[in-house]
Amino acid sequence: MDISIIIPVYNSEKYLKECLDSALSQTVKEKEIICIDDGSTDNSPQILQEFQELYKEIHVKQQENQGAGVARNTGLHMAKGKYVCFLDADDYYLENTALERMIWTCEKQNVQVCGGLQKVRRGCGEIESDGLLRELCTGHPEGVEINFFDYQNDYNFTNYIFLLEIIKKYKICFPSYRRYEDPPFCLNVLLKA
Predict the structure, then answer these.
(1) ∠ CA 154-158-162 to the nearest 5 degrees?
(2) Element (H, E) at 185
(3) CA distances (Å), 91 to each of 15, 94, 143, in order?
C-alpha cells in the first residue's frame, strides 16, 4: 500500500462527495481512504456508506463525536500505507497527481515528510496560490528542501504526506483537542524526521 488518506468527517454532507471524489481520483496506484465518521447527525454517514459500497479503497469507521484529533488517531491505527496524509472533509485535491508527486519526491530525495503547495478557492470561485513557498519553488520542478526553522508552516498540514513508520516508531498522535490539533502533531513529526 503506497498511502493512507485519513479523512475525519463530522456533518460535512455539503462538501463530502467532492472531497471523496478528489481522493479517489488521485493517481497513486495503491491507496486506501479511511473515513472516520465522528458522530455526524446529517447525511454524512449515508454518503460514506454509498461510497464504501462502490469503491474498495474506502473504509469507514463510525465513532461517537470526540473531535478531529481523536478521529485522526483512529485513522492512524487503521492505516496500512507506507505514507499517510490527512484531508479534511471540506477540502479536496485540485490536482489528481498531488499525492503521487509527493511520494515520488520522498523516494527520490530520501525524506520522511513532503509538503505540496496550497491553492485556495475563494468564495467567488477564484483559485489563489500560496505565494511565499511557491516563489521558493519556482524553477525547481522536483521541489526544494527548506528548513522548517526558516519557513515555519505547521498549519495546512493537509498539504503534507508523512512516512507512517516514523509516526508509529515514536508513537506520535494528535492531542484530543477539538480545534488546532494539527500544529502539535505536525511539529512532533517534523522534529523526529
Answers:
(1) 80
(2) helix 182-192
(3) 8, 9, 23
Per the listing, cell 498539504 goes with: 159
6-61 tens-digit pLDDT: 999 999 999 999 999 999 999 999 999 999 999 999 999 999 999 999 999 999 99
| CA atoms of 102 and 63, how far apart (whole Å) | 31
Nearest to 91 by CA among 14, 183, 163: 14
Return the amino acid letter for 3. Answer: I
- Amino acid sitting at position 34: I
The end-to-end CA distance of the chain, in Å, is 21
Q: Which three cell numbers stand for residue 170?
A: 515514536
Angle, helices 44-54 vs 16-24, to 10°: value is 20
Band of pLDDT at residue 157, cut at 50, 70 and 90: confident
Radius of gyration of the chain (CA): 16
Q: How many contiguous H segments (helices) and E segments (strands) does the chain have? A: 7, 8
Q: Using DSSP bridges, classify how beta strands 113-115 and 160-163 pair: parallel, antiparallel or unpaired.
A: antiparallel
Q: Is 91 helix (H, G, I), strand (E, B) or coil?
A: coil
Residue 7's H or E segment, with its range, is strand 3-9
